[in-house]
Amino acid sequence: MHHGPNATVSIVTGINGRDWSYNTFGTIFVIDDPVMLSDIPSATQVGRAQGMLIASSLDGFNVSVVMSIVFNSFQYSGSTLEIQGISRQRENYRELSVVSGTGRFRYAKGTAGLETLSYDASTTRSIIRLTITLV
After folding, report:
1. In this structure, are residues 30 and 48 in contact, taking their beta carbons and an 8 Å threshold?
2. Which residues are paired to 64 by β-bridges?
3. Quick one: which of 3, 66, 76 has its CA closest to 45?
4. Which residues contact 31 (CB under 8 A, 6 or more apart)?
5. DSSP symbols for 120-134
6. DSSP-assigned letter for residue 10
7. At residue 61, what are phi and psi to the nearest 5 degrees?
8. Could you give the CA distance from residue 64 to residue 121 in angstroms, rounded to a whole number?
9. What distance, in Å, lies between the first and last C-alpha atoms of the chain?
10. pLDDT tens digits, residue range 60-79?
């Protein structure tokens, strides 16, 4: 896991006597990741993905996600989308539920597709494409 002043994911707690990691049952993380318009490093930031990840399966394959996309620019500034579900973290593409929202997205429903574009195991840094479909 990336540590230091620029870390955007941090372990909060886990089960005593076990390693605390992404694939250890019971480990809880908080996230505050930037949401950008594209995967280019100089892309415009449109918000933050803030919430919790919980290693929720005994085999370590699934993570329970409770996350808000908090928009901070353009016409959606101040609005949020609420995302929830199980992320099968070893799969390249995962789909979660958009369960609600606020502001311009009040009462939103739909899906959030997460596709891993790159992952660096040495730093645990990744770039994930987030595709939101609202109905």
Report:
1. no
2. 54, 86
3. 76
4. 8, 9, 49, 50, 51, 52, 53, 67
5. ETTTTEEEEEEEEEE
6. E
7. -80, -25
8. 21
9. 35
10. 999 999 999 999 988 999 99
- What is the token pair recorded at 68? 């808000």
The length of the chain is 135
For residue 66, the one-letter residue type is: V
Confidence (pTM): 0.89
Burial of residue 106 (CB within 10 Å: 0-12, 13-18, 19+) is exposed
> Looking at residue 17, what DSSP letter applies?
T
Q: What is the pLDDT of residues 1-49, one digit of tens each?
A: 455 667 798 999 999 999 998 889 999 999 999 999 999 989 999 999 9
Query: Does the pLDDT value for residue 88 go beyond 70?
Result: yes
